[in-house]
Known about the structure:
By secondary structure, the chain is an alpha/beta fold. Helices cover 30% and strands 23% of the residues. Helix 4 crosses helix 5.
Amino acid sequence: MARRLAGGRLALATHNKGKLVEIAALVAPLGIAAEGAAALGVPEPEETGATFEENAVLKALAVARATGLPALADDSGLVVPALGGAPGIYSARWAGAARDFGTAMRRVEAELGTGGRAASFVAALALAWPDGHVEVFRGEVRGHLVFPPRGGRGFGYDPIFVPEGHAETFGEMDPDAKHRISHRARAFEQLARACFA
């Protein structure tokens, strides 16, 4: 049985402002006060894992141990089968130190050439406690890529990703609509059922 977290404070193990906004919106209705790692003075650990799950666990444990609070970490990215699964766990790194996702999206387009446009967004959420206990959940949403990018909402690769059954990219969607169907929302549904009272 999963360990449960009942209210209180939760550290969010990310410095990514877009992720902070999305995750804070997901936990707010549960009466949980979420604070980002940067606000808590905790640097981002190096992501040395080989999977989304491993990286999420690394980040959650580092922040939980540094703050003494339960910590929630997300590792997520764009997976393109025609690129052998890239950018995958390296999705943020494709944007470079400046986190320029315009550059990253152009790289995806250039490397794809005339290759297939199928893609998925994957998110692994890890909830860690300072004693080292961790719960991990994975969410995925399938779709296809479009170029040029469309829409100024969301963040990261959202402007080039159209989820299955929809005509708009995540970058064009109303944020509330995206939050109901996204990879992160799917992982969070599992986490909420298992770990939040």
